[in-house]
Write a structure and sequence with these properties.
Blueprint: H1 22-28, E1 36-37, H2 51-55, H3 69-79, E2 86-89, H4 92-103, E3 109-114, H5 119-127, E4 130-135, H6 146-156, E5 160-164, H7 176-186, E6 190-194, E7 216-221, H8 222-226, E8 234-237, H9 240-249, H10 257-266, H11 270-293, E9 297-298, E10 306-309, H12 313-321, E11 325-326, E12 328-329, E13 338-341, H13 346-359
Parallel strand pairs: 1-11, 3-4, 3-5, 5-6, 6-7
Antiparallel strand pairs: 2-8, 7-8, 9-10, 10-13, 12-13
Helix pairs in contact: 4-5, 6-7, 11-13
Amino acid sequence: MPLQPKKYIAGLKACAHGGTNYAEFKELGIKPEDVLDFSVSTNPFMPPPGIREMMQNIPIERYPDSQSTELTERLAERLKISSENILVGSGTTELIRLIAQAYFRQRDNVLILEPTYGEYEVACRISGARALKHRALEEDSFAPKMDEVSEIICQRRPRAVFICNPNNPTGKYLPRAEIEKILKACRDALLVLDEAYVTFVENTWNPLDLIERFNLIVLRSMTKDYGLPGLRLGYAAASRDIIATLRAVMPPWSVNVIAQESGKAVLGQDNYLQETLVKVREAKRYLTGQLTWLGFSVVPSDAHYFLVKVGDAKACRRTLLKQGVMVRDCTSFGLPEYLRVSPRTLPECEKLVATMKREIEKPGFQKERNR
């Protein structure tokens, strides 16, 4: 008899993500370099100049610093907190799994606000915890009802709560008062505030002054900000005790030396980052305006990415992909009628609009257009 995994691992499925599906591309005879990718929500104008050239001189023959000491210190200086409040990881997804490994027990309840990033539930399943779900509704433009969320926390006493802010895929950004309401309801529960896309939001607030007063972990992604998805780089900010616990369960050499050196380099590119954010917002305005003009229902978003209601998202994605344009089918989020679109450069956005205009009457597209 073959060796069986733990019972709560049996049947575990990988979480769907945006980006290139190489097996699918091979099936369709498509080369990745020939496709414009609007399915991933990284900064399309990154990485900054000089980063690729810098990589040629990185000493890959040596083990990386398991503590990411220099990068952690630079982040601490930038964020105006202690380096003991920061843990650098190989992307925020690794940190999500570390949190589950360190804090979740079998049969713990963990509250997840949906629709949202699927890796929260995967992390729960791996640890044997049970995912409680509160789902925001389409008629509310996918804005969660935080009074109801607070009531669930008070009644069910979850071990932890995951909130993606701004949310993926809806782009909804919650104000400080709403998050503080949740923190007060949590009491001894852990709130994981995933701010992977917060750099792309205008008029944000900073939760880092709350990390020593509450059981709060703030996650942020350098992968998204600086266009480094191939390197994987993110960090957690929390109390010293929480960071020490996460560090104890983190594998050694988790963050490779190229990622660490690149992270240090991009932190000195504030002006370039701000210039790119202006371009990203301009591209978003163009896309939302043009798609609305074409008759599609575009859900308001505080982030740079946004939802578009098309009818049959799976069919629409496939149609566009055959034309060299890739968008995110949101079926895995429980939104089979929606695509998620993230801006690229204006000329590339123009190609997306032209392609959708040309393909608009094919099966899948016309069902949910505004007439």
